[in-house]
Amino acid sequence: MYDVDTVRADFPILSREVNGKPLVYLDNGASAQKPQVVIDAVTRGYAEEYANVHRGLHYLSNLATEKYEGVREIIARFLGAKDAEEIVYTTGTTMGINLVAYGWAMPNLEPGDEIVLSVMEHHANIVPWHFLRERQGVVIKWVDVDSTGYLDPQKVVDAIGPRTKLVAVTQLSNVLGTVVDVKTICDGARAKGVPVLVDGSQATVHMPVNVEDIGCDFYAITGHKLYGPSASGAIWMRRARMDEMRPFMGGGDMIREVHKDAITWNDPPMKFEAGTPGIVQQIGLGVALEYMMGLGMDNIAAHEKALRDYARTRLDGLNWLSVQGTTPNKAAIFSFTMQGAGHAHDISTILDKKGVAVRAGHHCAGPLMDFLGVTATCRASFGLYNTTAEVDALVDALELAHDLFG
């Protein structure tokens, strides 16, 4: 039985007030709050166990290294990966995608080669490919969603042409909440010999994920959305793709030998991890993932599905609210605009006075905003600790905002 009250008790920040009101935190799509076990792990890591990893033979260095390296196995288990050595540590999805762009795509793509993207992509899965467009003539091909926010996987597959070298697609839209059938995309792309990168920043928060079943080549995650520390994350890369890559950054750990006239690289994943890493951050991420798996990813998904359905019903009852993204298969993420409101920021400010924290802006999804014909939206994004009572608090705050806007 999933007891949300017990879960909420694990997150100390949820007991505080904002502007004299109980905090209703609905900005999980941007960054999630941290359970006490993660806070404790980070505190202990700095207060009792800190040393640099891979460098020393003393007790603290060995302890830190053991804990730090042990997180690869946790991430592999979380993602359904068979080999922990296919897990490369990053500071988050943005770094993971840039690693692929610089380490794999840049040396392998030529002018006129294509990368297929959906219009729903976050800027982190757009800007690195624009670098390749500007610097070496790579072509970006865009696939639109329909009026409900649904992305037809076959349209993505059909967009693959003889010059396509990569498909890069989100598994779950951070704006619309749309769940993308990435397995069908990967099956179709593999039949055409084209690798697929999946942005898993949002999907891994809300549902079980198995990269082996999906069949992708790269899968990036970010820790701060997974109830872990900022500047933690990872990317799973299929071994064959690792072998095709050159290092993205140079420095310590990613080399075997350095001489005046030659260097030799370390083996993956170390080949792609230069310099002193975010040791405590990654340890905290491992604790966060263990926490989520302890709750059960299926249980989290079921809880959030119930929240989604309840929120959808309540928001549909507000005929002056326009919700973007109405496809049935979506997560508990709702972006909306309000009739009579000047800007999404104005709505967000009023909601904040009621203690309700939502996001307002373009959500790092400029092409999607253009497609939707809006400059900005408000976004309420739910997590594993949110409740139906908080849905009601959101609706009450929206009704107040509507009344104020007249």
Automatic annotation (TrEMBL):
N-terminal signal peptide: none
GO molecular function, one term: pyridoxal phosphate binding
Every Aminotransferase class V domain range: 24-394
Record key words, sorted: Pyridoxal phosphate, Transferase
Its EC number(s): 2.8.1.7
Organism domain of life: Bacteria
Record carries keyword Cytoplasm: no
GO BP: any one term: cysteine metabolic process
Enzyme class: transferase
Catalytic activity line of the entry: (sulfur carrier)-H + L-cysteine = (sulfur carrier)-SH + L-alanine
Matches recorded under InterPro entries: Aminotrans_V_dom, Cys_dSase_SufS, PyrdxlP-dep_Trfase, PyrdxlP-dep_Trfase_major, PyrdxlP-dep_Trfase_small
Cofactor: pyridoxal 5'-phosphate
Keyword Chaperone attached: no
PANTHER family in the record: CYSTEINE DESULFURASE (PTHR43586), CYSTEINE DESULFURASE 1, CHLOROPLASTIC (PTHR43586:SF8)
Family classification: Belongs to the class-V pyridoxal-phosphate-dependent aminotransferase family. Csd subfamily.
NCBIfam families (alphabetical): sufS (TIGR01979)
Protein name: cysteine desulfurase
